[in-house]
Write a structure and sequence with these properties.
With about 110 residues, the protein is an alpha+beta fold. The chain has a 3-stranded antiparallel sheet with strand order 2-1-8, with no helix packed on it. The chain has a 3-stranded antiparallel sheet with strand order 6-3-7, with helices on one face. The chain has a two-stranded antiparallel ribbon with strand order 4-5. It is about 15% helix and about 30% strand.
Length: about 110
């Protein structure tokens, strides 16, 4: 959610250009490129804040998780929208599942 609305969460801060975004692969517990990941939406996997998009490094791993979660589907980074995030029914909090690595100014 933070990545989609950074100005909302840090209105007094100058927005930096994001050089890379990483998520943790659910199975391997290793950081992976968020844009290359496959996300399982609607799985039975719950994180500390409830339902979450489950990032996987490979399509095969994501498909394997689908078998355990009727109604779930695989989406890519570009498909993650505020509407998708609202479907997760997780409570709002200050924590984020994203790790952003900043670079130069976007100004």
């Amino acid at each position: 959610e933070y990545m989609l609305a950074r100005a909302k969460y840090l209105p007094s801060k100058r927005q930096l250009a994001i050089e890379a975004v990483f998520v943790t692969d659910y199975a391997a517990r290793e950081l992976i490129d968020a844009q290359a990941a496959f996300y399982v939406n609607g799985s039975e996997v719950h994180g500390p804040t409830g339902r979450q998009l489950v990032p996987m490094a490979s399509l095969e791993a994501a498909q394997s998780l689908l078998g355990d979660s009727p109604g779930a589907r695989i989406i890519r980074y570009a498909e993650i929208t505020p509407a998708v995030l609202r479907t997760l029914n997780r409570p709002r909090d200050k924590h984020s599942t994203w790790l952003a690595v900043g670079g130069g100014s976007a100004d």
